[in-house]
Design brief:
By secondary structure, the protein is an alpha/beta fold. The chain contains 15 helices and 14 strands. It folds into two domains: 184 residues, Rossmann fold (3-Layer(aba) Sandwich), CATH 3.40.50.720; 183 residues, NAD(P)-binding Rossmann-like Domain (Rossmann fold), CATH 3.40.50.720. The strands form two sheets. The chain has a seven-stranded mixed beta sheet. Strands 8-7-6-9-10-11-12 form a seven-stranded parallel beta sheet. The longest helix has 20 residues. It starts with a helix and ends in a 5-residue tail after the last strand. The protein binds nicotinamide-adenine-dinucleotide. The site of nicotinamide-adenine-dinucleotide (NAD) has 31 residues, from helix 7 and helix 10. The site of nicotinamide-adenine-dinucleotide has 31 residues, from helix 7 and helix 10. It catalyses: formate + NAD(+) = CO2 + NADH. It comes from Nepenthes gracilis (Slender pitcher plant). Its EC number is 1.17.1.9. Its main location: mitochondrion.
């Protein structure tokens, strides 16, 4: 703790200017109008199709009028990469940066160093791995997300992906599009979900909701996590705790990843770990692309060791045209969509508004929303 504080003040001494003292960053709400920048995906012709489509650049979380009526400046952009992008123009003087995992503004140590007025980084959604959290902590920034906002959206999507892979749905759909009819090409590896062993790696909010949704399918349910559930919840959900991931993986027909991207989980699913899984395993990953070793997934899908891989998260995002996961066999990938349903958007927009309101008033956020507070990372990110 003491060491961290020393490191934080050393970093601040190096990175703050005379007119932007350390305290400016640490104080939760300094008075006066703020410059707030939002980075969101552009919806173009789709923006006007639904008044509740608030998660896009055009919708701007539905908070423009409110912010401007309070005298704050609110700039939104989707242009977030490279030295000449729109976001870069605002780095030197923004106070608050809001971004979303669906179109993340990567907040590097270098950006933090140059953002002398920055106090607050808000994630419209869940997962703040697009921020260099250690640099944010050292600079005295607050990082917060809307914990719980889209967990139902993601759990439902995972259930769909499991079924899509188990039933070998995608090749059947493609046959129809391409004017083909070949039942055998689908049926030789389409199964029922009933009786299969499903393991979730991470059983926090999303993992638990998925397990609850899987229960009526009469599967064998396993989970691995840092923390064991309390026995009552565990028996209600009907899942068995596996303390050792290496021992759980060989038992699973289907593995679902539901842990955050942290220093410990980055690249966790490498060649060696994938080799421990059953031949023919199906993997669903809506957590973060970088939890997987990209090439190990490609190799696993190409050899057939992984019989199907589905998810909506990539590294980086948006993923380039030549990203190998676009072209590997047996995948059912989509752009990052699972947590940005209209219902999810309304919830995380309301959560962002609530946190901004508290920030202006100098009030604390709900404790579960903090990822970085007063130089400390939330426990699972340490
Ligand atoms: N695709 C999407 O649209 C979308 C939307 C929301 C969240 N997510 C991702 O899903 C992740 C999980 O979300 P959540 O709401 O369930 O979070 P959560 O914090 O409720 O649960 C995460 C679980 O992972 C466990 N965990 C963390 N590190 C671990 C480790 N090293 N080993 C074992 N277990 C570990 C934690 O103990 C916790 O139970 C988020 O961090 C985010 O990256 C994706």
């Amino acid at each position: 703790m003491a060491m961290k504080r020393v490191a934080a003040s050393a970093f601040n001494a190096l990175t703050t200017s005379a007119n932007s003292p350390v305290l400016t960053r640490c104080l939760h709400a300094s008075p006066g109008p703020k410059k707030i920048v939002g980075v969101f995906y552009k919806a173009k012709e789709y923006a006007a199709l639904n008044p509740n489509f608030v998660g896009c650049l055009e919708g701007a979380l539905g908070i423009r009028e409110w912010l401007e009526s309070k005298g704050h400046q609110y700039i939104v952009t989707d242009d977030k990469e490279g030295p000449n992008c729109e976001l870069e123009k605002h780095i030197p003087d923004l106070h608050v940066l809001i971004t979303t995992p669906f179109h993340p503004a990567y907040v590097t140590a270098d950006r933090i160093k140059r953002a002398k007025n920055l106090q607050l980084l808000l994630t419209a959604g869940i997962g703040s791995d697009h921020v260099d959290l250690k640099a944010a902590a050292a600079a005295g920034l607050t990082v917060a997300e809307v914990t719980g906002s889209n967990v139902v959206s993601v759990a439902e999507d995972e259930l769909m992906r499991i079924l899509i892979l188990v039933r070998n749905f995608v090749p059947g759909y493609q046959q129809v599009i391409h004017g083909d009819w070949n039942v055998a090409a689908i049926a030789y590896r389409a199964y029922d979900l009933e009786g299969k062993t499903v393991g979730t790696v991470g059983a926090g909010r999303i993992g638990k909701l998925l397990l609850q949704r899987l229960k009526p399918f009469n599967c064998h349910l396993l989970y691995h996590d840092r923390i064991k559930m309390d026995p009552e919840l565990e028996s209600q959900i009907g899942a068995k705790y596996e303390e050792d991931l290496d021992k759980m993986l060989p038992k699973c027909d289907i593995v679902v990843i539901n842990m955050p991207l942290t220093e410990k989980t980055k690249g966790l699913f490498n060649k060696e770990l994938i080799a421990k899984m059953k031949k023919g395993v199906l993997i669903v990953n809506n957590a973060r692309g970088a939890i997987m070793d990209t090439q190990a997934v490609v190799d696993g899908c190409s050899s057939g060791h992984i019989a199907g891989y589905s998810g909506d998260v990539w590294n980086p995002q948006p993923c380039p045209k030549d990203h190998p996961w676009r072209y590997m066999p047996n995948h059912a990938m989509t752009p990052h969509i699972s947590g940005t349903t209209i219902d999810g958007q309304l919830r995380y927009a309301a959560g962002v508004k609530d946190m901004l309101d508290r920030y202006f008033k100098g009030e604390d956020f709900p404790p579960q929303h903090y990822i970085v507070k007063e130089g400390e990372l939330a426990p699972q990110y340490r």
